[in-house]
Design a protein that fits this description.
The chain folds into 3 domains: 110 residues, Sulfite Reductase Hemoprotein, domain 2 (Alpha-Beta Complex); 103 residues, no CATH class; 80 residues, Sulfite Reductase Hemoprotein, domain 1 (2-Layer Sandwich). Helices cover 23% and strands 23% of the residues. The chain is built from 10 helices and 19 strands. The strands form 4 sheets. Strands 1-2-5-4-12 form a 5-stranded antiparallel sheet. A 5-stranded mixed sheet has the order 6-7-8-9-10, with helices on one face. Strand 15, helix 9 and strand 16 form a beta-alpha-beta unit. Helix 1 packs antiparallel against helix 8. The two termini are 33 Å apart.
Length: 357
């Protein structure tokens, strides 16, 4: 994907997990071919920023050698799968992933942004993650398939789950879902069959950071040097990216307290949006993340601080959006970075204690 600081190359970990060797190699690739920063995305993927067009083919070869890209383009192009991060080998989540992955090329030609969630771990934790087809557990512990945007789902068994997914995907295409692009948008105009809305999903578990094995990345940005140091210090055997800008370490010792990673689930930097800004992006004329850190502590969110009007970090509405322009900021209320601002030409100093925009 094109961004202001070069290409952004997304890495989708298989089964939502990277081995320690893959993590260390990815850190090296981020330094060699990118800006030295990895993004943790809303879909629990990782991205290498700042890649040049010339380096892109070489980087893809390296990712392929690390077994981070599926050899089948039909699988790779639709491998948007959110996985409960507490899965264990052979459990329901693991088995569903093993059944889903090879069936992706056989599904109808869905829009590329559509995705799947396997929210079948010990507690429901993926409700806020971006997905269109959701395998979940109902209030009695039974397996269901729920269309995103519907309050209830269809009771299935492990043996019928994939066939039910095919039927839902075909219904989406046959009823004009491609024009909507996403399931929840489509359901605003189309009605699911009643039989697919009979089982209520279990309640979502509260967001916590239960112990040092789960850490957060402020603004979703992970410094490759810091991540490499963390992996070596803990001796972790694997890393599992999570939604909410969190990641789980598997194995090893508990990490020592470090300011570079977030250890408080209530830290506003986990929900505030800010691009790298100047001087890291040539499109930006303002610094972003230091200001976003200060404002996030005093402003109710969502807050978005963008280095330019492209709004790469959050190209959608926010309660408060600050857009960089010629070294100053324009203020947009309840809008997107490109919307008409209510105030213009604000200096960074004037925004330090902004409380009532």
């Amino acid at each position: 994907m094109e961004s202001g600081d070069g290409l952004v190359v997304r890495v989708r970990p298989f089964r939502g997990e990277l081995s320690a060797a893959q993590v260390l190699a990815l850190c090296g690739l981020a330094r060699r071919y990118g800006s030295g920063t990895l993004d943790l995305t809303s879909r629990a993927n990782l991205q290498i920023r700042g890649v040049t067009a010339e380096d892109h083919p070489v980087l893809l070869e390296a990712l392929g050698a690390l077994e981070l890209i599926d050899a089948d383009p039909g699988v790779e192009g639709h491998r948007n799968i959110l996985v409960a991060s507490d899965w264990r080998p052979g459990d329901l989540t693991d088995r569903l992933y093993g059944a889903l992955l090879p069936t992706l090329p056989a599904l109808p030609d869905l829009p590329e942004k559509m995705g799947f969630a396997l929210d079948t771990g010990a507690a429901a934790c993926l409700r806020e993650g971006s997905a269109d087809f959701r395998f979940e557990l109902d209030t009695e512990g039974g397996l269901i398939l729920r269309a995103d945007g519907a309050d209830a789902g269809r009771a299935v068994t492990e043996g019928t789950a994939i066939q039910a997914l095919h039927e839902m995907a075909e219904w989406f295409i046959d009823t004009g879902g491609r024009e909507a692009g996403r399931m929840a948008r489509h359901l605003r105009k189309a009605s699911l069959p009643d039989a697919w809305q009979q089982a209520a999903p279990r309640a979502t578990a509260p967001a916590t950071l239960p112990g040092g094995a789960i850490l957060g990345a402020a603004f979703g940005a992970i410094d490759a040097d810091a991540l490499e140091a963390l992996m070596r210090q803990t001796g972790a055997t694997a890393l599992r990216p999570m939604i909410g800008r969190l990641f789980r370490l598997r194995g090893g010792v508990e990490p020592r307290a470090a300011d570079v990673f977030v250890q408080d689930a209530g830290d506003p930097r986990l929900s505030t949006h800010a691009c790298p800004g100047a001087p890291f992006c040539p499109q930006a004329t303002v610094e972003t993340r230091a200001l976003a850190t200060r404002l996030a502590a005093i402003l109710p969110g969502p807050l978005h601080v963008s280095g330019c009007a492209k709004g790469c970090a959050h190209p959608r509405l926010a309660r408060v959006t600050l857009t960089g322009r010629d070294g100053r900021f324009d203020l947009v209320k309840n809008g997107a970075p490109w919307d008409t601002p209510s105030r213009t030409g604000l200096s960074p100093e004037a925004l330090i204690d902004l409380k009532d925009p």
